[in-house]
Amino acid sequence: MKITELRKKSREELETLLKEKRREQNELYFLLHQKKIKNVKEGRNIRKDIARILTIVKQ
C-alpha cells in the first residue's frame, strides 16, 4: 500500500486497517512455523505496511 493512499484515509480507517494488518501478520507467523506458506517475503511487506500506517497515525 502506498503512503499517498494512506494519507487520504481517516484516522478510524487507518486504525481498522492496522488491526487487519496485525491479524494478517499473526496468521502468517503461524503458517510460517507450520511450514504451510511458500511466499515468506509477504511478511516483510506486511511489516512495512504496519510501519507506514503507524507513521501516519503519529503525525
Keywords:
mainly alpha; 78% helix; 59 residues; Helix Hairpins; 0% strand
What does this structure look like?
This protein is an all-alpha fold and 59 residues long. It has a single domain, classed as Orthogonal Bundle (Helix Hairpins), CATH 1.10.287. The protein is built from 3 helices and no strands. It has helices spanning 3-7, 11-33, 41-58. α2 packs antiparallel against α3 (41-58). The longest helix is centred in the middle third of the chain and has 23 residues, at 11-33. The protein is elongated, with a radius of gyration of 13 Å. The model has no long low-confidence stretch (mean pLDDT 92).
Helix content estimate? over 70%
Count of beta strands = 0
- So what's the CATH class? Mainly Alpha
What Rg do the Cα atoms give?
Answer: 13 Å
Low-confidence stretches: none
Molecular shape: elongated
Mean pLDDT: 92
The assigned structural class equals mainly alpha
Task: Using the coordinates shown, work out and report the CATH topology.
Answer: Helix Hairpins
The CATH architecture comes to: Orthogonal Bundle
Q: From N to C, what is the helix and strand string?
A: HHH
Termini gap: 18 Å
Largest sheet: none
Number of helices: 3
- The fraction of residues in strands falls at under 5%
Domain tally: 1
Oligomeric grouping of the chains: single chain
